[in-house]
Every structure is written in C-alpha cells, then in structure tokens.
C-alpha cells in the first residue's frame, strides 16, 4: 500500500468519524505529496515520500519549540497533536542507544577523530537514520561523541 493510498483511506475514516483535526493534518500531508509529485512530473519513490513527511514533521517540531519559547500553550498543544498524527506515517523512531550505535560505527568507518570532521560523519549517518530520527538529536549525539575523541 502506497503512502498516498494510506492517506486517502485515513482521510475517509477521519471524515466518517468527524475527526476534523486528523482530517486537516492528513489533507496537508497529502497536498505536500501531490505538490511534489506535480513538481517532479512523476510518481514519488518511497524515499521521496519519506523525505516529504519528515520535512512536515520537522516543520511542526520547529513550530512547537517556537510556541513553547513564547508561551503560546494553546498553539503548542495543537501542534503536539498534529505531531502525533504525522508520526503515524513515519517509520518507527530509533532510540537514543540505536542512534549512538550508528554514530559510533560511522565515526569508525570515516576515521573521524575531531569535531572538525563533523560533516563527514553526518554525511554517513543521515542516510541511515532518514525519517527514523530527529536531525537535531542525531546532531547532538555526533557532536558529543566527536568531542570525546
């Protein structure tokens, strides 16, 4: 089942259940996928779909951080519930231990020995964790482990 098919099925279910919030988020996700499909002029690969859904999640996480920073609890709560809905369309998220393991292997693989080689390590790690981990979390783990070298 493609992601677009799953979104369509979930959209129908949300309409039947009169779940306006889920419906709104699903429509936004579907629109993002369709816009990208139109821009490329072809069907999207699974990896491209994952990239788009990850981008939507990142936008919501960034918004949540901003809302919390300025004390807008009403908008923060709405954004948290949107994040919960978007998570349904992402693969299972990696634990911090799993991220540390991947980063450690990447450091060994690249032979990185100082924080100056951050980009080299991130270049190896990010394709492995794409859609499965928050980039900020991965960034923090890479910095921490490189600073220990």
UniProtKB/TrEMBL annotation:
Keyword Cytoplasm: no
GO molecular function, one term: carbon-nitrogen ligase activity, with glutamine as amido-N-donor
Pfam assignment, any one: YqeY
InterPro entries membership: Asn/Gln_tRNA_amidoTrase-B-like, GatB_Yqey_C_2, YqeY/Aim41, YqeY/Aim41_N
Coiled-coil regions listed: 4-50
Transmembrane segments: none
Keyword field: Coiled coil
Name of the protein in question: Aspartyl-tRNA amidotransferase
